[in-house]
Structure prediction request, 153 residues.
Amino acid sequence: MTEEHRLRTLSHCEAPRRAERPPTVTAQEHRRGDARWPVPRHLEASEVGHLLNMLLEAYDGRRPVPQIRGLVGPEVYAGLSGPHLTRPRHRMHRIHTCTPAPDVIEACARVEADGRSFALAARFTRTPAGWQCVRFALLKPQRPGQRTQRAAA
Prediction:
């Protein structure tokens, strides 16, 4: 009894092959958000919290700043990539988000380090490539007896 074995394709299970190359997209089409690129979806509060944790890790020096280059605007990147002093680990406890405009998310959080509480404020804007943090500030309380300096009007 000889049984012949043959391999046969399961055409209904395999993905169709493409003979053509994927279409190339010019930089101008990419910037204006051409229909071939999906629009970044709206972020949930948990995702904003994850992004803020990544930014805090870069601020503390626990994450290399070039790792978050695509997530932040040029001003925030310049502020995070300066000289790093030894900083305590910051832990985020409470996050609040709001949407003042359709393509903007503002977030604030309570952050603790060395038993002290701080406020964190951030602003994310939607770009064709995704969400990007354009403002990031860790607001620390003033020390007793320290005068506030105001910018000249």
Notes: The longest helix spans residues 45-60. The helical segments are 27-32, 45-60, 74-80.
